[in-house]
Each structure stands twice: as structure tokens, then as C-alpha cells.
């Protein structure tokens, strides 16, 4: 009888802990406004912002969903923000352009200098559409390069969320 009571208590505890873990995991994919001393950005619903230990990347977010068939090794969408201090604005913009197989659109803005680029690149026979927002902060001597990449087959599904992230990204 005592073993049965201990077993019931153990099962109840496991159910409680499992429910808490599921709630926490679901919250990780909810929209979230993130702010650092350098920038602000909104992570849209469906993206997770994991603990980032890669010092070369200031912000990372990606979907849990992977592509299908040949794209099964690619995330449906992912975002990376790099802060660059060892290059100039024009060179960073040119690197973004030359990394693409095809330029879909580009826009330049002044005060502050901002470059918006939409490009396509074929990786392992998979079409990847990238939206870039590159911003120069002259006072801090930094260039901020946000790249959001989406498997072309899912482009429409992520269009609003990609635009939300691009629009919300502000350099301080």
C-alpha cells in the first residue's frame, strides 16, 4: 500500500512538472520585445531566441519548423544580427549583395545610413530568400547587419513576421 501511495505521488509530481515545462516551451515562441544597449527588436510569434553564446552574432531567432523534402535540414525561417566594427558601411552592404545569387530589391536611406536588401540564394538546390537591414551608427563606429532568411516555399507564410522584425529593428 505504501508503495502505491509513493507511486501516485510520483506520477502527480511528474504530470505537474511536465505541464510547467510545456507552458514554458510554448511561451518561448510568443512575440517578445528585446532591447540591449545597442538596439531594439521584436521577435515575432513562432520564433525562438535561444541563449546565444556566439559572440560574432548579437541576436539569433529561428522557427522550430524545418523545411520539407530536400529542405529538411533548413529552418523555415531564421534571423541573425551581427554588429560589425572592423569594416565600413559600403563594404558590409557590398558583401551582402555579393553573397546573393540574385538581387530582388534594394533601397538606400540617409541620416542614418540604412540599406535594405532582398535577395535570393540557392543553397543545396534550395531557394532561400533573405531580407537584410544594414544600419550604420557613426557615433559608436558600428554597423548592424540584420539578415532574415526564409525558405522560398514558405515566403508568404513568414512575410508579415519578417516585415515586423525588419520594421521593429532600431539602432540606438
Structure, described:
Helices cover about 30% and strands about 40% of the residues. With about 170 residues, the chain is α+β, with helices and mostly antiparallel strands. It folds into two domains: about 1-30; about 30-170, Protein Transport Mog1p, Chain A (3-Layer(aba) Sandwich). It has a seven-stranded antiparallel β-sheet with strand order 3-4-5-9-8-7-6, with helices on both faces. Strands 1-2-10 form a three-stranded antiparallel β-sheet. A hairpin with a 4-residue loop joins strand 6 and strand 7. The longest helix has 26 residues, at about 1-25. The mean pLDDT is about 85.
Estimated structural class = alpha+beta
Known CATH architecture of the largest domain: 3-Layer(aba) Sandwich
Q: Specify the CATH homologous superfamily of the largest domain.
A: Mog1/PsbP, alpha/beta/alpha sandwich
- Listing every helix as H and every strand as E from the N terminus to the C terminus, the arrangement reads HEEEEEHEEEEHE
Order of strands, widest sheet: 3-4-5-9-8-7-6
Hey, roughly how much beta strand do the residues contain?
35-45%
Report mean pLDDT, rounded to a whole number. 87
Shape: globular
Q: Can you give the helix content as a percent range?
A: 25-40%
Question: What composes the largest sheet?
Answer: 7 strands, antiparallel
CATH topology term of the largest domain: Protein Transport Mog1p, Chain A
Number of domains: 2
- End-to-end distance, in Å? 65 Å
Low-confidence stretches: none
Number of helices: 3
Question: Can you count the beta strands?
Answer: 10
CATH class of the largest domain: Alpha Beta
Task: Give me the Rg, rounded.
Answer: 20 Å
Amino acid at each position: 500500500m505504501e508503495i502505491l501511495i509513493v507511486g501516485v505521488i510520483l506520477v502527480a509530481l511528474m504530470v505537474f512538472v511536465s505541464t510547467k515545462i510545456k507552458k514554458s516551451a510554448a511561451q518561448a515562441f510568443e512575440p517578445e520585445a528585446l532591447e540591449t544597449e545597442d538596439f531594439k527588436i521584436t521577435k515575432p510569434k513562432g520564433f525562438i531566441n535561444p541563449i546565444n553564446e556566439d559572440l560574432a552574432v548579437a541576436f539569433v531567432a529561428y522557427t522550430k519548423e524545418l523545411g520539407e523534402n530536400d529542405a529538411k535540414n533548413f529552418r523555415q525561417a531564421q534571423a541573425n544580427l551581427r554588429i560589425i566594427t572592423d569594416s565600413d558601411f559600403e563594404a558590409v552592404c557590398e558583401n551582402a549583395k555579393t553573397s546573393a545569387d540574385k538581387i530582388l530589391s534594394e533601397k538606400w536611406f540617409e541620416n542614418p545610413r540604412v540599406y535594405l536588401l532582398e535577395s535570393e540564394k540557392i543553397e543545396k538546390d534550395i531557394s532561400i530568400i533573405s531580407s537584410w537591414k544594414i544600419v550604420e551608427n557613426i557615433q559608436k563606429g558600428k554597423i548592424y547587419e540584420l539578415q532574415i532568411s526564409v525558405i522560398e516555399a514558405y515566403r508568404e507564410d513568414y512575410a508579415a513576421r519578417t516585415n515586423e522584425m525588419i520594421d521593429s529593428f532600431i539602432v540606438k
